[in-house]
Specification:
The complex is a heterodimer of chains A (about 300) and B (about 375). Chain A is about 45% helix and about 10% strand. Chain A contains ten helices and eight strands. A four-stranded parallel sheet of chain A has the order 2-1-3-4, covered by helices on one side. A four-stranded parallel sheet of chain A has the order 6-5-7-8, with helices on both faces. Helix content of chain B is about 5%, strand content about 55%. In chain B, strands 1-2-3-4-5-6-7-8-9-10-11-12-13-14-15-16 form a 16-stranded antiparallel β-barrel. Classes of the chains: A alpha/beta (about 300), B mainly beta (about 375). Chains A and B meet through α3 and α4 of A and α1, β8 and β10 of B.
């Protein structure tokens, strides 16, 4: 009897040692980082695709099932998922991954967010997040902080593999630091250049590579551009001689085409997330993609 | 349906306040080819605009959040104005939801919408059209089928999303139309007689409650197309036999189908196309000299096309009928209605909708044309994006 119990216990222990940590992330960028750290010790699925804006996701039934079965839920936070994650969590009934538990990782808590304000925020201002701008993954230096938070949480959940995760983090960090130097040198021509962005989502990217954002295609964050706002923007572009407009692939290009026609500005569609373009599979690919899109129009 | 935008909430709300608070106000104004007495019978929903001129359809206060580590809770209180301009208060929903039950189980308890089909649970500000589908007004009631009770749901371990719901609720109460309250209207005096009948009905045991079952499945056909398929049933006593001291019963069955396509590179959730269809039928025992079963059925099928950010065009087709011998009965005649609408959502927090209804009801005998303009505002907490 004792022998059977021992064998049973051994089987259970070894089964748990072999079982992969089931990680669900809200975005493809988080999934890419979890893959860097967790490699073959985790199985990871992103709830949203890189081709879409994660603000506007909806709690599809298939997502309920994924969160229900998750060991770890990794979110961007800073109100990025406020429109759909609370409802999804209620339906998913998985208390392991609810806020306050080890299975819930809000990565924004580990980042110095930009655009935080203590001033009163009203919806008159459009899509302004008082908690800070949530598009922080677009600063590659934040990639290190994000990966570190993921490493620590995976090590806590799966202590047996902690050295493995730490080792992967060290490798990732060393490579990313190298790449950041290379990307900055590739984009030297853009250093200090005035640009227009479509939405406030490119704030971190602009700061990381020292672009001077002089205006936005949206009159207020989240609002569709109006004719009068575009006319004003044309004046700004001309008077300040701004040559580049940066935008994500999911925005309409009619406004950008109009601006190009009227002012001669180049518009550059840059991938904003892993998976935004078919060849972008990793966090490194993302910035390689951004750099090559910018280099392609540099004159 | 209404797409999906994400806006800021105050930090106070998110970081310091244990509760999300919101107000949603829904107004409509309309013109029609017939007078108010006719329109009131065509617009059967409790929150439908049903007169020429202005209507406050729904002023809803929402309070929700985590109660503690064990329960979430939600409360929706609705106010309306009747024809005399008097305010009417309703407890739309108020329920607890468990968070920590094992094995994929979850219990909801309180006052809540019965799990029946897709549309019944949607609050008026989430509807894709100005008014409630005819078959739902007739079979589930103008306010939707909701009551006090409890339901358990089970998220099955099947390899696709498959959830089952079983509910027990009071069959008595103002919103159990096909059951112990026949015809609840906010200012409908014709129902007083029925309400009296209902109040005479004595609850003796398990057979006097309303039982519901629903099986909901969700499939991702690919990255851009998802579908829901559901089957529902609800059983309970009705008030028709009170005078004859007979217990008469009602059974309602339904099937619902929902399909949504969203473009691979979508902005603010657009462009998208959704298709939502439901079919319901009812066995409703009545008594004159003998007990007989009235059979009612109906369906609606609606398409929404979000063609650019903030803009949605809609088309709804619907029919309802019954084996009622009196073809001039307002709620039992043959009925066909088509609605076309155009909705503009400047942001998620406001909405303007223009809707045209072509309505053919046998009891009227001629076509009726209605035109509605609806407008909505939302303050406070961020309403959930509905798939």
């Amino acid at each position: 009897m004792k022998k059977i119990l021992f064998l049973l216990a051994l089987t259970l222990v070894s089964a748990s040692a072999w079982a992969k940590v089931n990680v669900i992330t809200t975005t493809s960028d988080l999934a890419a980082l979890v893959t860097e750290i967790g490699a073959n010790k985790v199985s990871v699925t992103s709830l949203t695709k890189g081709t879409r804006d994660p603000h506007y996701a909806q709690a599809k039934p298939s997502m309920i099932r994924k969160v229900f079965r998750a060991d770890l839920l990794v979110v961007i936070g800073a109100e990025m998922e406020v429109g759909w994650l609370p409802a999804l969590m209620r339906s998913s009934r998985n208390s392991k991954v609810s806020p306050g538990n080890v299975g819930y990782l809000d990565v924004s808590e580990f980042i110095e967010l930009k655009g935080k304000t203590s001033a009163r925020v009203t919806r008159d201002m459009g899509d302004v997040h008082a908690a800070g701008n949530p598009h922080y993954w677009l600063d590659p230096a934040n990639g290190i902080l994000m990966a570190k938070a993921i490493t620590e949480r995976l090590s806590q959940l799966d202590a047996g593999n902690a050295p493995f995760y730490q080792n992967n983090f060290d490798t990732f960090k060393a490579k990313l630091e190298q790449k950041i130097i290379q990307w900055k040198s590739d984009l030297q021509g853009f250093n200090g250049k005035k640009i227009i962005a479509y939405h406030t989502s490119l704030l971190y990217l602009a700061d990381a590579f020292n672009f001077d954002v002089r205006g936005y295609v949206e009159p207020k964050p989240g609002l569709s551009p109006s004719a009068s706002h575009l006319n004003q923007l044309i004046k700004t572009i001309k008077s300040e001689n701004i040559r580049y407009l940066l935008m994500e692939p999911f925005y309409e290009t009619r406004s950008a085409q109009l601006l190009k026609r009227k002012s001669g500005i180049n518009y550059i569609v840059i991938p904003q997330s892993v998976g935004a373009k078919p060849n972008i599979h990793t966090y490194f690919d993302l910035f390689d993609g951004i750099v090559s899109a910018l280099k392609a129009v540099e004159k | 349906m209404n797409n999906a935008m994400c806006f800021a909430q105050s930090t106070l709300q998110h970081n310091e306040n244990p509760m999300d608070i919101g107000i949603s106000a829904l107004f409509a104004t309309g013109v029609a080819s017939k007078g108010n007495s006719t329109i009131a019978n065509l617009q059967g929903g409790g929150h439908d605009p049903s007169k020429i001129g202005f209507t406050l359809q729904n002023l809803e206060l929402t309070f929700g959040g985590a109660v503690d580590p064990f329960f979430d809770a939600q409360t929706n209180i609705i106010m309306l104005l009747n024809d005399e301009g008097e305010a009417i208060l309703e407890i739309e929903e108020a329920y607890l939801l468990t968070k920590q039950l094992p094995a994929g189980l979850q219990i909801k308890a309180g006052q809540f919408y019965t799990e029946f089909g897709r549309q019944n649970k949607l609050h008026p500000h989430s509807w894709a059209f100005v008014d409630q589908p005819i078959v739902l007004s007739r079979l589930l009631g103008g306010d939707g089928l909701r009551s006090q009770g409890a339901r358990v749901s089970w998220l099955s371990p099947l390899p696709w999303y498959s959830e089952m719901f079983f509910g027990v609720q009071n069959a008595k109460g103002a919103t159990g139309n096909s059951f112990l309250s026949a015809g609840h209207g906010h200012d409908d005096h014709a129902d007083e007689e029925h309400e009296e009948e209902s109040s005479e009905y004595s609850i003796n045991g398990a057979e006097d409650f309303l039982y519901s079952a629903r099986w909901l499945n969700g499939l991702d056909i690919n990255d851009n197309v998802s579908a829901n398929i559901g089957f529902s049933a609800v059983w309970g006593p009705n008030a028709n036999g009170v005078e004859a001291e007979k217990e008469l019963r009602t059974a309602i069955y339904g099937a619902d189908f929902y399909l949504k396509w969203q473009a691979a590179t979508s902005s603010r959730g657009y462009p998208f196309v959704s298709w939502h269809t439901e079919y319901l039928f009812r066995h409703y025992e009545e008594i004159e000299e003998d007990v007989f079963t009235r059979k009612d059925s109906g369906w609606f099928s609606q398409f929404s096309y979000g063609f650019k950010p903030g803009w949605i065009a809609g088309l709804r087709l619907e029919m309802a009928d019954s084996n009622e011998e009196d073809e001039h009965a307002i709620n039992g005649d043959e009925r066909f209605r088509t609605a076309l609408n155009l909705t503009w959502l400047p942001t998620e927090f406001s909405k303007i909708r223009l809707q045209y209804n072509y309505d053919h009801a046998h009891h009227i005998g001629e076509d009726v044309h209605l035109l509605w303009l609806q407008f909505e505002y939302n303050l406070g907490s961020h309403a959930a994006h509905v798939f």
